[in-house]
Amino acid sequence: MALSGKHERFAQEYVVDLNATQAAIRAGYSDKSAHVTGARLLKNAKVAARITELQAELSESTKVTAEYVLSSIVDTMERCKQATPVLDRRGDPVMTETPNGEMAPAYTFNASGVFKGAELLMKHLGMLEGQGGETDDGLVAAFNKLADKLPG
Q1: Rounded to a whole number, what is the distance in angstroms from the first to the last CA of the chain?
Q2: Mean pLDDT (10-residue bins), the chain, 152 residues
Q3: Domains of the chain (ranges plus CATH)?
Q4: Cys-Cys link to 152, which of 67, 68, 111, 118 (CB 3.0-4.6 A)?
């Protein structure tokens, strides 16, 4: 059985940005109750099946698969973890004193990029799921706080 016009429109709009509230509004539902309507429609088995179908079509047409996305995240994380020498305006290495008093070139890496990639991978693997199936915001906040303290 095909979806009603509004349900089909919701499914089409949802795959645009994965925002149920905005998809409901764009599909013609009331702005005031769009957040409730969007959540309800995502739980509707027929709507959910249509969304899965549309996402599969999108993945096929763009050649972007979950494997491709995960591989890209891992590749980016590896690039972010590479130590990069700190250079001055002339391109010379900046030297810094080590804990034992020796001078050594300074290096930096993109810690925030590594942490963001790890967060995305953990979300994908369900490692940040709370009891109710929602993201554990406390863990994400702690993760982000730690990332903010690191250089890069």
Answers
A1: 53
A2: 86 91 95 94 94 88 82 85 87 89 87 84 70 51 63 54
A3: 5-62 (1.10.10.1400), 66-149 (no CATH)
A4: 111
Sequential DSSP letters for 3-66: PPHHHHHHHHHHHHH--HHHHHHHTT--STTHHHHHHHHHH-HHHHHHHHHHHHHHHHHHT--H
Flag whether the pTM goes above 0.85. no
Distance CA 50, CA 44 (A): 10
- Specify the 3-state DSSP secondary structure of 141: helix
* Residue 59 and residue 65 in contact, taking contact as beta carbons nearer than 8 Å: yes
In degrees and rounded to multiples of 5, residue 42 shows phi and psi of: -65, -25
